[in-house]
Amino acid sequence: MLFALRSLCLVFSATLALLLSCLITPSSFAQTTQRQYLSGTDKDHTVDWRFRVSGGRQAGRWGKIPVPSNWEMQGYGTYHYYKDWEGDDLAPDSVGDYQVRFRVPRDWQGQAIDLVFGGVMTDTEVKINGQAVGPIHQGGFYQFRYPVASFLKYGQNNLLEVRVRKFSTNRSVNKAEREADFWLFGGIFRPVWLEARPPQHLVRTAIDARHTGAFSIDVFLDSITSARRVTAQLQQLDGTPVGEPFSAAIQAGQTEVRLQTQVRNIQPWSAEFPYRYRVLVQLRANDQTLHQITETFGFRTVEVRPHDGVYVNDQKIHLKGVNRHTFWPETGRTTSPALSLQDAQLIKAMNMNAVRMSHYPPDSHFLDVADSLGLYVLDELTGWQAAYDTTVGEKLVRELVIRDVNHPSILFWDNGNEGGFNFDLVDDYAKWDPQRRTLLHPWLNTNGINTAHYEAYDCCPGTFFHGSDLFLPTEFLHGLYDGGLGAGLDDWWQAMWHNPLAVGGFLWAFADEGIVRDDQSGRIDVAGNRAPDGIVGPHREKEGSFYAIREIWSPIYFEQSGQDRLPASFTGALRVENRYDFTNLKQVQFQWQLVDFPSLTDTTAHVAAHGQTTGPDVAPRAWGTLALDLPTDWSQHDALRLTATDPHGQAVYTWTWMIPSPAQLAERFVTPGSGTVYGAQGDGIVGMRTNGLQVQIDATNGTLLHLSRNGQPISFEMGPQLLEGTTTLPKVTWQQDGSDYVVEAQYDQESNLRYLVWRLLPSGWLRLDYTYHYRGGETHPYLGVSFHYPEDQVTGVRWLGRGPYRVWKNRMKGVAFGTWQKAYNDAVTGNVWDYPEFKGFHADLYWATLDTRQAPITMVTTTDDLFLRLFTPTEAEDPRTTHVDFPTGDISFLHGIAPIGTKFHPASDHGPQGQPNGVDRLGRDYHGTVYFYFGEDVPTGRSATGN
C-alpha cells in the first residue's frame, strides 16, 4: 500500500504543474522550470479548443473539442483499424485544425520558453501568432518541443494554431504506425504545455545509477555565460540527503557535463523492492542558484549474460509479462495517471513483474507508476512490421530515449516490432542512454536473446528450449476470446521455470482493445476478431485467464498446489518453493482459515478457525516447509484456505484444499427418507414415484424420458447419453429394492457404455450410477455423459466446486474451491463482458443447484474430479483456432474435457494439457454417481461435518 500511495502522489505531480512546487522550497521557486498547461492534463481533465476536421463526421465545421483527446472519440472524422483505410473513401487523409488563445506571464519575458507536445497523431504543423515555430513533426507517439520565446506576446493574448494530419506525408511513418494492427486515431492526444527556464539553464539529465551505489549523471546545458559549476545532491524521496554534495566545473558555451559519485548503504531498485531516490541538480554562478531541477531514479544494474541469463543487481531474474496498449474505450489513446495506476495494479495483481510497451512509448505517467510499484519495462519504438526511414527514425529514437532514460523500470529498448526494424538506428540508442541498455528486436534473435513470437510449446530443434541462447518470447500465447493467455500457460511456465536459458515471456495482450462507437449507438467495437485479445476487457473486466495467470505466476509455489484435497496424513506442513527473485519467504505473511460449507442452500463459507504465521526462511529459488499451527480437529472441517501476503501488504494468492471427498460430503447432504417408492412398467416405460416426483425411464435403453413434480413437468431428460463411443441396446430390468425402486441397464462388452442404474429414494432423491469403458491407447475429446435441458428455462446456478470461472483442459488454474453463485448469462468472452461466463465446464463438482423457471434441479456427486458442463457457449465471429466443438446435450458430467487454442495455434501445439484425453494403455472403466433432486424442499442430512 505504501508504494501505491507514493505512486499516486508522484504520478499526479508529474502531470499537474501546481504540484511541482511541492518538491522545492518557496525561496527557490524562481530557479525552477515553470510549466503552464495550454490543454488539460489527461482524459479526465481537458480544455476545449476550436477544431474542425477535413473529412468524415462533422467535416469542415468549426466546433469545440476537448484537448487532449483523439478526435474520432469526440464525434469527428472516421474510425479506422489496421489497413482498412487504404483504397476506401473514408477520409484517410483527414486533417484536423486546432486553435486556442492563451496568455503568458509578463515576467516570463527574457526566459527560455519551449512549447511541448506530449503526443500528436501524426504530422504536426505549429504556428504561434501566425508564424510557423519550426519544422513539421512526424511520428505520432513521441514527445517533442519547439523553442518559442521569440514568437510570444508577453502579458497579452496569443494564438496557437496546430494542423494535424492523421496520416503522414512520409510513407515510412505511415508504414510503421498507420498500417498497423491496432486502432488508428488522430489528434492531440497527450497534453500540451509551455516550459519556462532562466536564460542560462539545465536542459535535461541522463542518469546511470548502479546497485553498487555508483552514480553518474550527464547534465545538458544551454546558453551558459556566467555559470561556473553544476552541483548535485542525492536525496531520499522525503528530501533527506544521501551522501555528500558533488559537483563539476563548467565554462561559458559548455553544453554537457558529467557528474559522478559513490554512495554507500543504498537500497537498490527492483520489481520486488522498487526503492527510489531523487537527485537535486543546480546550475550555480558563485553562490547563486540560476536554475535547478529534480529527477527521480533508482539504483539498479541490468546485465545480459549470454548463454546464462538476464540479471538485475547481480540476481538472475525471470520476466513474467504482458503486452499493453495505451487505451481506454471512451477516449482511445488519451488516458490518465489514475488509469495508469489501475492498469499497473492489475498487472501486479496477476503476479506479473514486467510489461512491454506495444508498440510505442506509453504515457510518461505509466512509467512513473512502473517505477513506483515495481514493473520491468520494454520501451518500444513504433514499427509494426515496417520501419521508419533513417532521417525520421533518428529523431524519434532521440525523443523516445531522452524522455524515458531516467526510469529505472526500463530494462530494454525495442527497436520496432516484427520486422519493423531499421538497423541503421541501432547505434542511436546508446547516444542518448548512458546506461547503454540492451537493444531488442522483438521476434528476432539478437544480442544473445531469442525473442521469437508464437512458437509452439517446447519447440524448436537447435533453438529456443533446445538451443544455447537465452529466449524471451516478447509475444506468446496470443489471446482471442477465451483462448490463449492462461490457457496453455501452465505447461509453458513449468518448462520455462526449469530451463536455465528461459528469461520469461510476454503474453499478448493485457486488454481487449474495444472502442465505444457513437455512430453505432454506443456499441463497443473490437474490430471483429482483431482486438478481443485481452486478459481483461475494455473497461478492465476480468476474464478467467486473469486468475489462472495469477496462480501460475505466483512467486510462491506449493508442491500440493495440484492436489484437490489434503491427504489423511497431512500434519499442517506444506512443501513450498520460493519463486521470487529477491524476496525471502520469511518476509511473507501467511493467513490460514478452516472453513465449512454447511448446506445445499447456504452459499456462505463459514470460518471455523483461523491463524497467521510468518513464512519460513527460504531464499529465492530454494525449497522449504511452511508449518501451519492448525487445531487438532482440522480434519473435521471442509476446507483449508491459505492466503499469502507480500512484504508490501499485497495479496499474492489464496489456495484452497478440500478435506472431505465428494462421497463423504454426499453422505451429509443426501438422506434416504422414509416410506416406499412405487414403480410399474408398461408401454416400454418404467415409472417410479414418490414424494410428488414422477420419473419415467425408457424400458428399452435405460435413459430418462420424463420428469414431473407435483404435476408440473421438468424438462430434464434424454440422458445419460455417452458422449464418445458406441452404445448397444441393453438388458433393462426393474425391481423393488427395500424401500427404493431400481431400474438397471446392462450393456454388452462391445459397448463403451457398460452399466447404468437409476435408484429412486423415498425422500425424492434420484440416484444415477453409470460406468463406461474405453480401450487402451485411445484418445477422446470428451469423457462423460450428457442430458438435455432447455436453456431458456435457466436463471442461474449455485454450486460447491472450483469457481467461479469456467475451465478448459489447459486452463485449470485460477479457480478455487468454494460455494459459488452466478446468474445465467450468454457472455461471449471478448465481445460481451458479463463475467464470469455462465456456460462451459466447471471443475471438481461436489454439488450444484440449477435454478430454473420450472423447479430447482439439485445435483450431488460422490465422484472425484468430475466436471459439470453447463450448455454450449455462444461462439464469436471467426474464432479461428480458439474454436471448440462442444459435446451433444446441455448438462454433462465429465471425466475429461476439451482444451482451447490460441489465435494462431490449436491447443495441441501448446503442451501436454492441450492434448485430447488419453486412456490408460490397458484401458479403463470410468464410474460416476450423481444424485438429483427436483424442487426447492431439498431433504438433507446433518448440516456440517462433526455437528
UniProtKB/TrEMBL annotation:
UniProt keyword Hydrolase present: yes
GO biological process: lactose catabolic process
Entry-linked PROSITE patterns: PROKAR_LIPOPROTEIN
Annotated ranges, domain Glycosyl hydrolases family 2 sugar binding: 65-198
Residue span(s) of domain Glycoside hydrolase family 2 immunoglobulin-like beta-sandwich: 206-300
Keyword annotations from UniProtKB, A to Z: Calcium, Glycosidase, Hydrolase, Signal
Beta-galactosidase domain mapped to chain residues: 574-637
Domain Glycoside hydrolase family 2 catalytic: 308-424
Keyword Hydrolase (UniProt): yes
Requisite cofactors: Ca(2+)
Pfam families per record: Bgal_small_N, Glyco_hydro_2, Glyco_hydro_2_C, Glyco_hydro_2_N, LacZ_4
Signal sequence bounds: 1-30
One GO cellular component, as annotated: beta-galactosidase complex
Domain Beta galactosidase small chain/: 735-854
A GO MF label: beta-galactosidase activity
Subunit structure and binding partners: Monomer.
Protein name: beta-galactosidase
